[in-house]
Amino acid sequence: MLAIEPSGQVLGATVHGLDLAQPLADADFVTLLQALGRHGVLRIPGQRIAPRHLRDFSRRFGPIQTGIADRFRDPEVPEVGILSNLVRDGKPIGLADAGQDWHTDMSYTATRGFVNVLYAVQVPRRDGRPLGATLFANTRAAARDLPAEVVRRLEGLTATHDFNVFWERMRRRPGSARAALTPEQRAKRPPARHPVLLPHPITGETVLYCNPGYAERIDGLDPAESASLLDYLIAHQLQAKYRYAHHWTEGDVLIWDHIGTLHNAIPDYRPDEPRLMLRCQVMAADVFDPGFQQRWLKAA
């Protein structure tokens, strides 16, 4: 029987009684959606699954993103991406996902990201301690705590999110071998605008949707005012009281809500300390749809 055990912290819960190698029952899917809305980050431990199981589970939440870093995808199940520091025949087998700083995946696209689903196959360890933790910040709690005058100032405003903001930050780090994006590459990922204050599709609560990874500016403000307001919003949502850390164990499947959280993968492991994760990125193409909400969110 499915059971949800809250972490007791600002985010996080553990899901008991679920085997993702089996089809997900409708009633269990509804329970997971509601738990995701309440807790933001769900750990489903003890899984032993194939890439196709991860794909089938992730598809329940919406369409899976494809076409990004195609060379780092499962050869038989292309919806499943590979995140790893492992090297075979002198070539990396997966995309490195640590050290990217705080961000929200896919905020730079017109269709926002909904959930990230990661399956831990290998977790780096040192002296018996797991490395490569993923940190989260609760953007629902951060929005709830905004001063009333800031909320009034933000109402109706949008922010421009641009993949190139993140890319340039990574490119300028010491030791980076990244080249600047070409005009053709930038054209494939044009900037997108999203409301700074956004209703969460599961709970209806307001979230602060303005992450430091991709947000470039607050639209309609002069550059100095935009930069000042962005700095304030980023510092506000990254306060320690909004943070939660997940320490990985092999067999964990972690699902988190891109709309209600920020995340940051910690690169505290060496190249000889292997890390291997399988990932599905689910877009928010369905969860904002009234038909999806009527069928699944009204069922609880």
Automatic annotation (TrEMBL):
One of its GO terms (molecular function) is dioxygenase activity. The keyword Transferase does not apply. Pfam families: TauD. Gene3D superfamilies: Clavaminate synthase-like. The keyword Lyase does not apply. Belongs to the TfdA dioxygenase family. This is TauD/TfdA family dioxygenase. It comes from Siccirubricoccus soli.
